[in-house]
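Board work, copied verbatim: DUF2157 domain-containing protein
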Amino acid sequence: MAALDEEKRNLVVKEIESWRRSKLLPGKYCDFLENLYLDDLNERPKGFMETTIKKIGQASRKQWFLTFGIFTLICFVVLHFSAFPVSLQIGLTGAVTMAFIAYGGKQRHNNPLRGLLSLGIGMVFLIGAGFGIVQLNGWMGGIGPMLLLGFCSLVWIGIGILMRVPLLHWFGWMAVVVFYALLLARHVPNPSLFEVQVFWIPAALLFAWLSWYLHVRFKSVGAVFFASALVLWFMPEVYSALYGIQTNWIQIEILFKIVIAGVAMFRLRKQWMEWVA
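↓ predict structure ↓
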């Protein structure tokens, strides 16, 4: 019972603090109301900045030196990154990415939001630093960007499956879609309208079938493949718009495909809703 009263008191105090921040009541009135629930106003909940400043003030000398040492090391690496050998650039990028992944995996259960944020930063850092390496070494004109995109897609898919992060898994497949589009543009520069459809529609049907086939064992994987199938279904029109292929037919194609997809999803709603649930 006492714990319940304490919980209610903290809830009321937090509400009063929200009134203070939003200026709904003057500060003096908020202090008066908090005096009714708190023995000491110093006990009131502190905001994010106040809590952060307090922690900084309580940091030991060792923590201060460690923080400034790490900051100095980061600045040194960033400023001299272009002067490092390629192997060292790749090694540093891989080490930092693995550190973010390891921290994200460790925090996944204790603090899911922090864990997902760490994983996301690691994945963005990987492709960002990767493109930096490709540009610094003059590989932008060749197959460097495509190799990087292919590697990143494999990492995102692998980490998404291992860590059970469907969104990251889906981004990996979207990177594969971009890789496939670039590959087509490089090797088939002037396709016909029919060829564009042939390039993408079978892949969409394959992903839809994989969604059904895998959903029994891996629920999240079924949802990822279903979402990827929907993207692939409309990729011929996106590809045609990007590369100027029979653009006068794009709107008709989209409307036709929306009708087909809508009718199919309505008639099979009991099945595909089970796949993505």
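The CA atoms of residues 261 and 267 lie 10 Å apart.
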